[in-house]
Amino acid sequence: MNDSFGLEGRTYIVTGGAQGVGRALAEFGLERGANIMLVDINAKVLEQTKAEIDNPNLECAAANVAVEAEVDTVVTDTFARFGDLHGLVNNAGIVRAAMAHEMTLEDWQQVIDVNLTGAFLCLRAVGRALIEKAEKGDPAPGRIANISSDAGRRGTIGQINYGAAKSGVLGLTMSAAREWARHNITVNSICYGVVETPMTDTIRNERFRDRYLAQIPLRRFATPAEVAPATWFFLTDAASYVTGQHLSVDGGFHIAT
């Protein structure tokens, strides 16, 4: 595979893309010639990001992934802007930290709505479009990468809502992979550890920082730029025979005792 990673001219939706990991994911794809529809609920930051990246292959859509109609509109707008769609990076997520016995139902539901239901709505909308293309004889494969977390594989302390949602994303991934393989659509998930982003500032700066670092064999947190390549692997032809899999990109956190 050349340096384009096989992405040149292909179109992908990237959710949760205004900053942090989402922005790094978008930049990786754009640098290799992909068209990107960048989605985020924060319209102001999204427009700032678009201006800073300044790439003609980038389009932005302010949308809440937990709202069905807004997700469906994003897919429609992607076809209107780029004329095609090849895949999805399902990255949008939020945190609402609290111990289980202190967590409010509102905080539980907000995280489930965005991190799990939102992931489902995006996967479903993109999957429908990819299946329709396949049924019309389009030979181009469909590729979906769901961003999960090691919190969904090992559990987590102080974020039971987040752990439950990300565990659900793993089940979502495997079920969709089974259902859509016959349409030449692959679905995989990537389990990040702690990545240096605005969303993880609280984790990285409070008393849990040293405990987290002690469990990471590489003894550091990831940067958004270094988790992007492993994520994009699942959207390339190099991963054409890989589906229903979960890849931990976490500095070895998942193997630590």
UniProtKB/TrEMBL annotation:
SMART domains: PKS_KR (SM00822). It comes from the Bacteria. GO terms for molecular function: oxidoreductase activity, acting on the CH-OH group of donors, NAD or NADP as acceptor. InterPro entries: KR_dom, NAD(P)-bd_dom_sf, Sc_DH/Rdtase_CS, SDR_fam. One of its GO terms (biological process) is fatty acid elongation. Transmembrane segments: none annotated. Residues 10-198 form the Ketoreductase domain. Belongs to the short-chain dehydrogenases/reductases (SDR) family. This is SDR family oxidoreductase. It comes from Parasphingopyxis marina.
